[in-house]
Amino acid sequence: QVPPGAPSLPQSGQNGGVPVSAHKLIDGKAAAARVLLQVREDVARLHGQAIQPALAVILVGSDPASQVYVRNKILRAEEVGIRSVEHRLPSDTSTEQLLILIGQLNADPAIHGILLQLPLPAQMDELRALEAIAPDKDVDGFHSQNVGGLSQGRAVLTPCTPSGCLYLLEQTCGDLRGKHAVVIGRSNIVGKPMAALLLKADCSVTVLHSRSHDAQALCRQADIVIAAVGRARLIDASWLKPGAVVIDVGINRIDDDGRSRLVGDVDFDSALPHVAAITPVPGGVGPMTIAFLMKNTVAAALAQHHALRSQSEAVCHSIY
Ligand code: NAD
């Protein structure tokens, strides 16, 4: 997700005066627009079957960045025809109070997806809250049932950012089978699900993290690099094999000559001459996250509708 005040795609000539070669840029905005177009068509089909996909978004507290993220998610949902319901709770909400709301949303058949905006205020138990969301409404894919399902290679609701990264890689590289992918970062939100998705796509996967020895040399062996570290411009050309494809998940705000701006985990200017393709920051992975949230909401609505239909068919069968 692109944070507040994010500038648009790097322009030609922004690369320290050297023109950015457009063919090397993986355009996340254009890719997200394609995904959202498909979602809009799927929603229209569901409307035709009298199904109104609906997403509940829960925001606890008043973190400014979270407020912007939530507003963007709700705007995007409206654009594609998904009904959204916002629940704002004060920052002193207890975990128990949040669990009551989640329980109500779980039981509401008109709500198909539940998104709990993270981070929660410090006094709250994040894991307990995420585990309370019904797995079939868990559009962020953070419930342990969905995490386990993904690691078994089953079709489950999958975290939005890594799903968006995989989409960009498939569009850029075509067949991913047998490629060596290095994922830098092992968070539950990005690194681990990314590694699971790449394994499912038949890549050979290496996961690097803060305790890895010789991370740079290992990374240099990769055909595909996914950087999800949260360290501004950590990865420069010396980490990259010539011709690698690079997906930069990092969003880091830096002070650049007194002006605040966003950069990724990859040193874009250093990497660009070495790579076959790279995502810019912003305008790369960010837009994909919301697009896949919408895609997951539609998938959840469809799955719940099918489950309901087979349940009622089973009841009819047992009656007659
Ligand atoms: P995190 O802090 O939870 O995890 C960072 C990971 O990086 C850890 O696993 C750590 O072991 C690893 N790491 C730290 N230093 C390292 C080093 N020197 N070498 C190798 N590994 C190292 O972060 P996260 O939630 O996974 O997010 C990572 C970045 O991605 C952040 O910049 C975040 O803002 C961004 N992000 C972007 C989106 C998006 O939509 N574009 C979504 C989620 C996160």
Task: Kindly describe this structure.
This protein has 320 residues and is an alpha/beta fold. The protein is 42% helix and 15% strand. The chain has a 5-stranded parallel β-sheet with strand order 5-4-6-7-10. Strands 2-1-3 form a 3-stranded parallel β-sheet, with helices on both faces. A two-stranded antiparallel sheet has the order 8-9. Strand 4, helix 7 and strand 5 form a beta-alpha-beta unit. Helix 2 crosses helix 10, helix 3 runs parallel beside helix 4 and helix 6 crosses helix 10. The longest helix has 34 residues. The N terminus is likely disordered. The site of nicotinamide-adenine-dinucleotide (NAD) has 26 residues, from helix 10.
Percentage of residues assigned to helices: 40-55%
Sheet-strand content, in percent, reads: 15-25%
Rg over CA atoms, rounded to whole Å, is 20 Å
Helix tally equals: 10
- Poorly predicted ranges (pLDDT <50, ≥5 residues)? 1-20
Question: Main beta sheet, described?
Answer: 5 strands, parallel
Report, as a whole number of angstroms, the end-to-end distance.
Answer: 51 Å
Protein structure class: alpha/beta
Total beta strand runs: 10
Q: Which strand order does the major sheet show?
A: 5-4-6-7-10
Chemical compounds bound to the protein: nicotinamide-adenine-dinucleotide
General form: globular
Mean pLDDT: 92
